[in-house]
Amino acid sequence: MQLGWIDFSKEDRQKALDVINLLSEQGAVDELGIGIVRDAFANYFFPGTSTIQTRAKYFLIVPYILRDAIDGRYGKDVNRILRAIDAEEKECGIKLLEANPKAEGVIGTRVLPKGWVARKPSDIYWNGIRTYGIFCDYGLSIPEYVSLAVKLNTQKSSAKLGNRNDETEENEKDDSDAGDIMNVSFWNLPIYHDNWRDNLTIELTNEEAFYLDKQIQKGAKGTLLEYVLKNRIDMNKYEDFVSMAAELSEKVEEKLAYMMKLACEFNNLVYMARVRFNVMLSEEENEVAVSEWDRLKPQVKRRANVDLSAVLNKLELHNPGTYLFLSKLQKAFKALDIDAADELIKKRERQLKGINRAKLNRTKEFDHSKWVGGGELDYRFSNARRIINDIYSGEVSSDV
Q1: Are 400 and 206 in contact (CB under 8 A)?
Q2: How far apart (Å, rounded) are the C-alpha atoms in residues 125 and 361?
Q3: Global pTM?
């Protein structure tokens, strides 16, 4: 399939790249259109994270670069500054690999030093940087931030030039305006140092880890992410979200425990649909899918037991099509009418993709030994665990 778009700005281009990325993320293939619910749960439990974040260090490398970019070193042309930011991010990637060629999670590892990535660290981490209050939000995109910063810096310069004669009333007004401009603060970065590029590594320094720990807790109040950090929960003890929820649901606050219960029950229903999808796609030749369905058969009624209305209401989702599909699927599973469930799954895929693109209409074209469409819902558990492990490691390091 080929995709194309007409873009009138960098923001338009980025939105298109975001869509393409969602279609290609490993483990995030959404054959049945339940991604909107999965992602809403993930944002509820682990806000500021995404499936393509790799290491916690980028929550600081990106702000360091963006902070430096508006200090005048690249002039006043917004496009030139944005190109410089891109170049700086690439250069940091090279430095990280020079420090440790085997470092995990360095963005661009496969193409550096000659090439670079379409999804830059600033694109991947910007939402989290705003969510955690590292950037003082204002609802700005990165190009908007750069543009506003350039304008403010220009106004500051003009205000200073206007203050050559302190005896005039006009210059008193200039003083007032300059004060307002100087009070605009984009960043909450008390740990920033001018020499941050020196000895740059993918690991957090002790200072960075403690800062990020507290900052994420502030920006993720009432969430599972805050609870884990606040209580020093070792996420490596758990294989997945379900196993973590089983242990922590009795310890967290009631509302959070209820949402974890809903998420696990929603996963039970969706996972059965994904297994059936793979059984049908492989024409019952995928041994893993067939074996998994045999395991699930005695549990079908129980696993279909989820309050779908509560799921969508609690997550404040308004998607009648998704609710209708899930409710009909749930009814079929509860009645043990697997043929009806299969037909609903086939119909859902055709509605989402069209007859010609639906995989279940072209079963002969696919490798019947491969699994398609994702498995158990992770809700970004693995991504959050990677970020949290980085913070814990930095906090026990001797680097100060």
Answers
A1: yes
A2: 38
A3: 0.85
